[in-house]
Specification:
Length: about 500
């Protein structure tokens, strides 16, 4: 008798708990003025469709429900804005707050809290757009072995084979790493170890971000243990060759009594944002190798600008290009923007601090509920066939002298990979362009037959998607290529 009563009462308690959770945390009645709600599972909402293919799911919701609708991922409701014309109003809305989101990432993924986040972002913006950018650009080109007379590591005039991602790691990732931290001899603190551990850590990024405890993922805990083996803050501050940006942040955190672990965790966030440049560089190179016309068009543009800028007939002259030259190269610009369009995976999410009436560009009003999240999903906009013809195709000249429209009106910001808040946008773009220019100028490089890269869509939520696996290339130093240097 008692044997039956105990399981029965356990079952009743569990059922009551579920019903209680359902009605208090999940069940939700649409209020007047709120956006339509996408149908989903009564417990986990739209999680399944979202995980399967977030872009297709949101595009379908947009078709069925209009430009603004609410989805639920477990107990988190997100009201999504699909209209690219509303991006500016969305970014300016003061009740849509990014602060709780960055707190969630910093705490759940990197285990620290910034004591003065707003002041820090302000300084970050100033530093990264000022002299720190010039120094970072100078370093990154030298460190990548791509400037002046440097020989790109491991490369010779004879054809050799490597993975493309592996090549990007040896060039742009290493360059970014040394540009941030400077050089030192500690065996545990080098770009190879960091890139490997970052790869492991990133696998669990989305789970940790959503709040699952790190202890559930022993591999992530182990990777983090290696990633915090960094020089102390005092040591970093003494390094002449460490990034000005990093040093400014370290000094700011120290002056606000943040401890060594907080500072190391913040250094990892900085490496994490820069790691995006490495990921997007892979895609930009991959696509122009796959679509040779893109490669040829870029090489022609490079040869033309070098011909225009040379001062003599001396083949050994180092031809100087400045930032404006690089930023003015239209084929290069289009190749890079298109790489961002196709590889972007990020959500632009804000916490709704008050019930807020939001008006779309079409003049439609919706109430966003306090406590929900408001979001724009750039990949869904980047893959909308109403905006981009054949969105699944990479077209190297898609952005060359082109404008994009929706509902008959030109879109001011068709590429949203940096959200609205990223202070590193210009620097990251310039680093990517300079890297592409240097690689295509210096190397003959080809994909080996049959090599094809796929986006790892399970990483949706990361700023840039990684590839599922590396692809093999063959390469050699280009005979008689011009030497070029970026002046900063
Ligand atoms: C390819 C490279 C990069 C990509 C794709 C990228 C993307 C993003 C995105 C999507 C956000 C969220 C913005 C929003 O929701 O409005 C963000 C924020 C941020 N990014 Fe970047 N980023 C890149 C490089 C960098 C670099 C080089 C820096 C260096 C300074 C940087 C610093 C930051 C900071 C500090 C924030 C937080 C801003 C805040 O709290 O207000 N990013 N980035």
């Amino acid at each position: 008798m008692f044997g039956l009563i105990i399981p029965l009462s356990l079952f009743t308690v569990a059922a009551c708990l579920l019903i209680y959770l359902y009605f208090t945390k999940i069940y939700r009645k649409r209020r007047p003025g709120e956006a339509p709600v996408a149908k989903g599972h009564f417990l986990w909402g739209n999680g399944e469709e979202f995980n399967k293919n977030a872009v297709q799911f949101l595009l379908k919701c947009g078709k069925d429900l209009g430009d603004v609708f609410t989805i639920r991922l477990l107990n988190q409701c997100l009201t999504i804005v699909m209209d690219p014309h509303s991006y500016e109003a969305f970014s300016k809305e003061k009740n849509f707050d990014f602060n709780p989101i960055q707190e969630q990432v910093n705490w759940n993924v990197f285990s620290f809290v910034l004591k003065k986040p707003k002041a820090m972002v302000k300084i970050a913006g100033k530093t990264v757009r000022g002299p720190a950018m010039d120094k970072a650009m100078d370093n990154v080109t030298t460190e990548a072995g791509l400037s002046k007379n440097n020989n790109t590591s491991d490369m010779s005039k004879e054809w050799s084979e490597d993975g493309l991602r592996s090549l990007c790691r040896k060039t742009i990732f290493n360059a970014i790493f040394y540009t941030l931290f400077g050089r030192e001899d500690n065996a545990d603190f080098n770009p190879t170890i960091f890139c490997n551990e970052f790869e492991v850590y990133h696998k669990y990024f989305n789970y940790m971000w959503l709040g699952m405890p790190r202890s559930w993922f022993p591999a992530a805990t182990k990777a983090l243990g290696r990633l915090v083996l960094q020089p102390s803050s005092d040591e970093l501050l003494c390094r002449d060759d460490a990034s000005e940006y990093l040093k400014t942040m370290v000094a700011f955190m120290k002056s606000n009594d943040q401890n060594e672990m907080d500072i190391k965790a913040h250094n990892l966030v900085y490496l994490h944002v820069n790691y995006n440049t490495f990921k997007v560089a892979f895609w930009a190179l991959y696509h122009i190798l796959q679509q040779r016309e893109g490669f040829q068009a870029l090489r022609q543009e490079i040869d033309e600008i070098l011909e225009r800028k040379r001062q003599s007939n001396n083949p050994d002259e180092i031809i100087l290009l400045d930032q404006a030259d690089v930023e003015g190269m239209k084929t290069l610009d289009s190749i890079c923007l298109e790489a961002f369009r196709v590889s972007s995976g990020v959500f632009m999410v804000r916490y709704v601090t008050e019930d807020t009436k939001f008006t779309t560009s079409e003049g439609k009003e919706h109430i966003f509920r306090k406590g929900d999240r408001a979001a724009i999903y750039p990949p869904a906009i980047h893959n909308n066939p109403e905006i981009f013809e054949d969105p699944e195709e990479y077209k190297h000249d898609r952005f060359k002298d082109k404008k994009f429209y929706r509902n008959g009106r030109e879109i001011k910001n068709p590429i949203l990979s940096f959200g609205s808040l990223c202070p590193g946008r210009r620097m990251a773009m310039l680093q990517l362009k300079w890297y592409m220019l240097a690689m295509v100028n210096r190397l003959d490089i080809e994909l080996l037959p049959g090599e094809k890269a796929e986006y790892a869509v399970e990483y949706y939520g990361h700023e840039i998607l990684p590839p599922r696996k590396d692809v093999n290339v063959r390469m050699r130093l280009r005979p008689n290529c011009r030497q070029v240097q970026l002046t900063v």
